[in-house]
């Protein structure tokens, strides 16, 4: 029964964190749903609103989720998942918001160009998709670095850049696992989007980062 209890506990952890992550950025969730089920002139407006709100909602909620899974991986006791998430949200809000102001314009440019170029300019479309993949890994790495180190924003961005391009294993593993989770969530098990997709990606991403961090620490880097 101990094994069953542990499995149930981890399922509960992942689902609660994922639901909290979505709840703390609920306006963006509604806007994304609106963009998916809407056609025409309102789509640019919806994406503009998402871009405006992202630094204030998406990035702080994602930072709180990464900080929460960091506690699990580092064996830091949490009396309450909700209280821990709320505390991490408050503690990381200013830094994550500032990071959001820096990264959101890059995401906006890439997404807008991919949407615009999808019918034409195959070479440019491929180039922007590659940039998007790199930015995706970089963004997740920034989140991992931000919740693990008490350093300035410039140092966070530099360290994340070094890890993104300096650790091929981290890069490829992040892309591979994220693609698999998102693919299964969208095409096979849509309920995962509500309960597990974000939390699983953050858990695996931080686990990969933490292993790299431990190897660097052991080698004295």
TrEMBL record:
Pfam families: DUF624. The keyword Iron does not apply. The keyword Transmembrane applies. Keywords: Membrane, Transmembrane, Transmembrane helix. The chain crosses the membrane at residues 16-37, 43-69, 99-117, 123-149, 161-185, 191-213. This is Uncharacterized membrane protein YesL.
């Amino acid at each position: 029964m101990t094994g069953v209890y542990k499995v149930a506990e981890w399922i509960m952890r992942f689902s609660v964190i994922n639901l909290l992550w979505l709840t703390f950025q609920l306006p963006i969730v509604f806007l994304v749903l609106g963009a998916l089920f809407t056609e025409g002139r309102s789509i640019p407006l919806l994406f503009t609103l998402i871009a405006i709100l992202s630094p204030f909602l998406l990035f702080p909620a994602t930072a709180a989720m990464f900080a929460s899974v960091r506690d699990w991986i580092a064996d830091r006791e949490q009396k309450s998942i909700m209280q821990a998430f709320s505390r991490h949200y408050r503690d990381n809000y200013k830094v994550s918001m500032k990071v959001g102001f820096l990264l959101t314009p890059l995401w906006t440019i890439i997404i807008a160009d991919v949407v615009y170029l999808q019918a034409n300019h195959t070479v440019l479309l491929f180039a922007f998709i590659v940039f998007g993949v790199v930015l995706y890994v970089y963004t997740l790495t920034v989140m991992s670095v931000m919740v693990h180190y008490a350093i300035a924003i410039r140092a966070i961005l530099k360290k994340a850049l070094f890890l993104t391009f300096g650790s091929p294993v981290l890069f490829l593993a992040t892309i591979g696992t994220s693609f698999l989770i998102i693919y299964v969530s969208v095409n096979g098990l849509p309920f995962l989007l509500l309960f597990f997709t974000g939390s699983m990606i953050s858990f695996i991403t931080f686990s990969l980062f933490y292993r790299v961090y431990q190897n660097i620490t052991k080698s004295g880097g």
